[in-house]
UniProtKB/TrEMBL annotation:
The Ferric oxidoreductase domain, residue ranges: 12-122
Protein name as annotated: Ferric oxidoreductase domain-containing protein
Membrane topology of this protein: Multi-pass membrane protein
Source species of the chain: Candidatus Roizmanbacteria bacterium CG03_land_8_20_14_0_80_39_12
A cellular component term, taken from the record's GO annotations: membrane
Cell location: Membrane
Statement: the UniProt record of this protein carries the keyword Zinc: no
């Protein structure tokens, strides 16, 4: 039961993560849509929800079922990828507020670009757990992200679309 709940929270975390990526992809590809506009408005809140869902996922999948310290410290490849992803998401989570934006200025944008690295670790985590529809979903979104970055680079000669680095 605990693992079923952990798996469910992991899927919800993946869906909310995808929801945070879609507005940027749509913007770079020039796609206008009411849902993307709504997601863009609430992206920060959706991202915070994603991190909390992922934290519950980790707690249920690993922390509640360990029986020894050795088991906690022994990580399988998919767990290493998930750990790297959640570490990156931690920095996104703690800086997902207006105070951080004001205080960090351009560094806020740099920190939040870590999501491009995090998405690869999330994809690898999902793929190494089991090839499934979730792997296909994350792979599809990853490809859309790469295509959108290529499109914006060709259009503006910059991966940021002319925004600050």
């Amino acid at each position: 039961m605990v693992q079923f709940l952990g798996n469910t929270f992991g899927k919800l975390a993946l869906l909310t993560y995808v929801a945070t990526l879609l507005p940027g992809i749509g913007n770079r590809l020039g796609i206008k849509n009411k849902i993307l506009v709504l997601l863009k408005i609430y992206r920060r809140e959706v991202g915070i929800s994603m991190y909390l869902l992922a934290l519950i996922h980790v707690t249920l999948e690993k922390l509640l079922i360990i029986t020894s310290v050795k088991e906690l410290l022994t990580l399988l490849p998919f767990e290493i990828m998930g750990t790297l992803a959640i570490l990156i998401c931690f920095f996104l989570f703690i800086t997902s507020n207006t105070v951080s934006m004001v205080w960090l200025k351009l560094n806020w944008y740099r920190i939040h670009r870590l999501t491009y690295i995090g998405m690869f670790f999330i994809f690898l985590h999902v793929a190494l757990v089991k090839l499934s529809i979730w792997t296909l979903l994350m792979g599809f979104v990853l490809m859309l992200q790469l295509i959108s970055l290529i499109v914006i680079y060709r259009r503006t000669d910059s991966f940021t679309g002319g925004r600050p680095i």
